[in-house]
Here is the input.
Amino acid sequence: MENLKIDKTEVIELNIALKEPISISLGTVHLAENIIIKIHADNGLVGIGEASPEINIVGETQSAEFEIAKLLAAGLKGKDPLAIEDRLRDLDRTIQGNYTIKSAFDMALYDLLAKKASLPLYQLLGGGNTREIYTDMTVYLGSPERMAEQALEYKKAGFPTIKVKLGTSEEEDIERIRAIRAAIGNEIPLRIDANQGWDTVTAIKILKALAPFNIDHCEEPIPHWNNTDLRRVRDNSPIPIMADESVFDHRDAFRLASMGACDYFNIKFAKSGGIHNAIKINAIAEAAGIKTQVGCMSESRYALTALSHFVAAKNNVIYFDIDSSLSHAEDPVTGGIQYKGKGKWELPQVPGIGGDFDPEFLEKMKKTII
Ligand SMILES: [Mg+2]
Here is the structure.
């Protein structure tokens, strides 16, 4: 067998304009400020990864990640890119935490491995690409009238489910859901996400009040560190509870599952550190009888393609929140998942993750090679 070595790594900033600023209870995003990692093996194969740091959730920024990526890349030079377990250990030994930038390296290593195996990533992960992947579409925070308008627009566009950002106050949040239901009717399921915006008592009150509105589940109702009270909310809520910001990696998943603190996990590569840990989270969930959702920060279609491969390979993932690129005003990706309308994504049938970035789009971006 041929032994590969990592020859060099490209670190590239990726700035993508949004159609409009996006608000959740934790803050507002005006621009997708992501990082691309390209790991070059000495046989010419290139593995590509992308990460999208959400400062309010993961505590990482694009500029910090750019610097940290140089350290991480230096630690991988000359080593075997196919030994993913060992390479991820190298990353963890170089710097604690910083899961979002590590997820770009993890994604690049998996892309390289799948290219070396001449398999689409979903096949490498044991999937058959027989699952249909329909994303929900997110209505971000705004006035009840504005949010109802957007929900109606997404209903008309054929999305099967609409996700609604909440998390300001009891009066406002209940009014938002009332206005949305008045605009779109009761049939399409809603998902809600408070992004830690409520306290425990308020969360229980709001969730009880929202019981009649056909809601699949509620993400992260209270502050992420309060696992004990998350269980209290779950015990008292008629709406199932999904852990998002409180479950970054497999260790969080094990703790929350052991506590019976939630009904579902929301898996995001930006929190887990990538595909390797996402597989572990999903396995812990499966063992605990917990179904999972996949979600995103502000990734382009490239990282969403990697996420869709994961979905294709893991039947325990039943909810798909794969909509970030639909809020972007620009699409820098070549290949990758293709949007078929009405929420449907289709996977590419080529080795690896199956996408790249338009070189012309990247020309104006900051870049370094380690
Ligand atoms: Mg969420």
